[in-house]
Amino acid sequence: MTALVILKGSTLFTITRLVQRALGLISLVVLARILAPEDFGLVALASIFLVLSTDLSSLGSEPYLLQKTSVEDVDLHTAWSVSILAKFSLFALLVIASPALASILNESRLALIIPIASSGLLIRAFANPAVVLLKRKFLYKKIFVMGVLTKFISVTVVIVLAVNTRSFWALIVGDLVGAVVSTILSYVFVSARIGLSLKNWASQWGYVRWVLPQTLLGSLRGQLDKFLLGRVLPAEMLGGYHVSRSLIDVPAVNLLGPLSEPLLASFAQVRDSGDWMRRQFRVAFLGLYSLVFPLIAIFNIFSDEIVQVVFGAKWAAFAPITAALSWSFVVWAGGNVLTKYCLATSRTRFLFFYTCLMLTTMTIVLLSVGAGDLVGLVYARVVSDLIVFSGVFTYVSMKDRVNMPRLLALLCIPLASTILSTGFMMSFDSVGAPTSVVSLIVRVSLLCGVYVLCLIAIFQVLKKYVPECEFYVKLAQSVVSGCAAAVKEKF
């Protein structure tokens, strides 16, 4: 599997997520102007248990199937059967526990919201597990169509309901509709005979017994802040925090995430070739951080404008929280690549202890920093996560001879480009500018344009000496040539 094929699959998957997130952002923008921050706080509380249940019920089936040398029918049957058992069990548990959860969080409405929202587990339980075969073969065109259709229908339902009911129930119903559509499409686009069987459960359990706790702990780490804050903050403040996180998720989950999505399959393809695997590791890091650094700059320079343009003036007070959350991109991107690398090399136990360490440090930070200082809490969490990640990453790099100094030197390329473009933008923007959609687009585009020019210039200078830079230069030339050929053929 060549790096170019991997990157093409990654790019198409990224486009899929970008379209999905664009539709989701449209929904969020509409809802932010209709609903109050308190409504978003209520949905955030309900989502804590839904996200945990969804992640836990997956039982590591997808990474298990992705890392296998070959996938047989019995593997798919086992994954489907386990999914049904897990999701039905968790649904029953949530229904029984919903009154107690509502009492713990001092929100009586959760007693009804949680059972209704969690019924999506029952629907998703029957999704076709053979969809993972598309990812193994890098056939992301079908995944693109499935994802976009599901999101479009779901968002349409959400917006129509929100406009007519002006209620947070629009979000919950839209999610259930999305579950139905995605489950149906999984069978329309992937032909496979699926049946009930637990024959290969022992084999799958041998792989996921460490992946599953790691997945649960990782999910818990992503929801623990909302749980702890939800017990001490008013719903309005929690809603503002939740919306800020949703905005940050736009590039994190749907840009950086999809770009790293094919890495597990690609690392598995070359795990027996140490040099190639280490090179792909460095190429992935350079590519991801070439996006991370300018994203952080954008959210810190334009946080006030972004929040007001996207959500409206009533959300302006939460702009500092958005800027602080953007620094989590540093750990998020690196941790994602490191996780995929460790999964491909069967280090599931190591990932479990890594996630435990991250969860422990985050819990200490959340309990130590006053909840009234949300911005300080976010920065404290980012710093603690960065310290843990740096230590773990250094350990893996030394053990696998990834060449840490070389990797850090590579990261200096996008960092230097970001500093140069940010400096230019700050001097150019010193006189200030009015907050408007056009103004924001022009200024962000200017920063991005200068950044890309700086990055291209550095890559061109270093391509003869740095193979990772040469890879991206050739890739860019290939894309430009392909586009030119397509245009020439069409006209």
Description:
It comes from Congregibacter brevis. Belongs to the polysaccharide synthase family. The chain crosses the membrane at residues 18-36, 42-66, 78-104, 110-131, 143-162, 168-190, 283-303, 315-338, 350-371, 377-396, 408-428, 440-462. This is Oligosaccharide flippase family protein. Keywords: Cell membrane, Membrane, Transmembrane, Transmembrane helix. The protein is globular, with a radius of gyration of 23 Å. With 491 residues, it is an all-alpha fold. The longest helix is centred in the N-terminal third of the chain and has 32 residues, at 3-34. It has one domain. The model has no long low-confidence stretch (mean pLDDT 80). It is 83% helix and 0% strand. The chain has 21 helices and no strands.
Largest sheet: none
Q: Helices and strands: which structural class?
A: mainly alpha
Report low-confidence residues grouped into runs of 5 or more: none
Order of helices and strands: HHHHHHHHHHHHHHHHHHHHH
User: How many structural domains in the coordinates?
Assistant: 1
> Helix fraction?
over 70%
Mean model confidence by pLDDT: 80
- Tally of contiguous helical segments: 21
Distance between the termini: 33 Å
- The number of E-state strands comes to 0
In terms of DSSP E residues, the strand content is: under 5%
> How big is the Rg?
23 Å
| Shape, per Cα inertia axes | globular
Transmembrane segments: 18-36, 42-66, 78-104, 110-131, 143-162, 168-190, 283-303, 315-338, 350-371, 377-396, 408-428, 440-462
Protein name: Oligosaccharide flippase family protein
Organism: Congregibacter brevis
Subcellular location: Cell membrane
